[in-house]
Amino acid sequence: MNDNDYQTDLVFDRIRRLFFNDSEARMVTGMSALKEYCFHPDVQLLAQLTLKKALDHPDYEPNTTMSQFSSEPSFLKPTLTSLFLFVGAVGLIGNLLTVIVIFKTKALHSHTNYFLANLATSDFCLIVVGVSFDLVNIWNDGQPLELFGYCSLTSTLISLFTFASILTIVMLTAERFTAICYPFSHRTIFDEKRVKRFILLIWIVALIPSITIGSMFKRVAPDFCGYNRQMNYVGQCDLVTSPDSFFRYPFESAITITFVIPLFFIIYCYFRILVTLSEMSNSTHVHTPVGTARSDSGGAFQFPHNSNNSNTQSFPLTVHTKSVQPPRSQQAQKMVIKMLVTVTTVFFFCYLPYHAQRLIVKYNRDDCSASDFCRLLYPITGILQYISASLNPIFYNLMSVRFRNGFKKLIKDVWAHRARSYSNLARV
User: What are the backbone dihedrals phi and psi of residue 221, each rounded to the nearest 5 degrees, phi first?
Assistant: First the structure.
């Protein structure tokens, strides 16, 4: 008997004497009867020692809960792989073209579009890292690659790109809110230099919680009390949990800071923006000089010239009428707001299942491990994340004439360059 076995038996006997009488203690031989006493430190220690003892057994199989596809239908892996690859390819091409179009088209050099380029960059990086991680998870039955720091690094990067996208959407909303509701302050707050500093600040702020959360993701295996214990060579990537951990609610904190608070802030800003635009539309008037404008009947009333000075024309009478259509600037503002509202709405609706899945797994782990639907929640919510990142370039093309023209011009330039290259090769 090794030291681990001796310590395990010693703790087990102490627990049986602590919670059971003599007759009951002799009947308690398994660990399942102790689950209801996991609040006690000795039971928690026993759970950890039992897990280490089980790992030494040659027939031990890690308990994968959410990414185990070996027992699922044979068509599931190819189907999920095809979905991930298709959504990923659309997102990579669309976001890459978005960044190129913005920086090559002078008409798109604006503060809003700089933030959109940053959003496309974070979405592009999220797809590269996230899709690769999910494909490995699918085809390796939830087991991470045998690389040092694989779980921590991938979790940190995925969190970084996700938080950067959220903060970029928040800054987009704040920029439009300032431009419409406080136009005189907009130029001083969001000049070109400060916009670039804001973008840099977005990545710095997103990096801090990403490192904190990513460092808590290791290769783990659950004990019978439900705590994830860090392992060296078995287990899956998950959050290390223990009853005495300092940061016990990382998911709840992340949801509050990166989802709930931004959502309420964005809703407030868009509400104020819509109210302001509505007031501007209602107060829009056209000042029409009577002496120069034609009446509905086709005639025109000409105001008489000053008889004393034939070279001086008197000012015509001005009639103030409400405009049927808002000015072009307001129409453009409304189109931009409509596009940003669409992007934001899709983002939050696609990320809501992702956060819900994390909470479901954390608080209902045992039932999830036995539920086919619960096991499929992880890849489904992952696909929704990448769908959100892939749809943004499509929205830009559908709702912005400048973006649409920029994409068309870029594609024509690339096609013309390829045609010239082929013609030169043919000449050679």
Answer: -140, 140
Looking at the predicted structure, is the pLDDT value of residue 172 above 50? yes
pLDDT tens-digit series, residues 240-278:
877 776 667 777 888 888 888 998 998 898 888 888 888
Give residues with Cβ within 8 angstroms of 192, minimum separation 6. 111
Supply 365's token pair.
């782990």
What type of residue is 185? S
Place of tokens 């045609």: 419
* pLDDT given for residue 27 in this prediction: 47
CA distance 77 to 72: 9
Question: Do the strands 217-222 and 228-230 form a parallel or antiparallel pair, or are they unpaired?
Answer: antiparallel
CATH superfamily of 76-281+326-421: Rhodopsin 7-helix transmembrane proteins (1.20.1070.10)
Structure confidence by residue, pLDDT tens digits, 20-45: 655 545 445 556 666 666 767 777 77
Domain boundaries, the chain: 3-55, 76-281+326-421
Q: Strands 236-239 and 318-322, how do they pair? A: unpaired
